[in-house]
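User: Could you check the structure of this?
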Amino acid sequence: MLPFAVQAQNTFALKTNALYWATATPNLGAEFAFKDKHSVQLFYGYNPWRFSERASLRHWVLQPEYRYWFCQGLNGWFVGVHLMGGEFNLGEIDLPLGIWDDLSERRYEGHYYGGGVTVGYQVPISHHWGFEASIGVGYDHIVYDKYACGVCGERLGSGRTNYFGPTKASLSFLYVF
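Assistant: Sure, the predicted structure tokens are below.
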């Protein structure tokens, strides 16, 4: 028995989520692995652009997360818990599968916060590169103002809602230092 504690090497990685890039949302995550099977991650995404004169999917999100790894940090299966918060300005967008039907004719502006649980898998591609897939479900509290159209300023009302369902999805590439 050793007279001192042996600790695993701490590992740091930068990552980006390809699913966010598919919506023209620049994003960056940083993850720090420690004590063999634990890591913390901080993810940020920001979309400042309008898609047209009327259509907008502008938003930002900040999402910290704790992860427990079944094999070792940044390798294999993990489960985690995440928090999230952000702001949005969405309008005149047709989302697939009939999701949020009146968003195609209205604009919503507001903020949200919540959290959830995550499950995922990460695989090394090379010595420094890796790939991760994860999904999370949870809760968000959403506070919003509803407007008549994407560019006009006529406010139709305000509201609050609670959302239960998917709260994150990622297909991420990472660089491990």
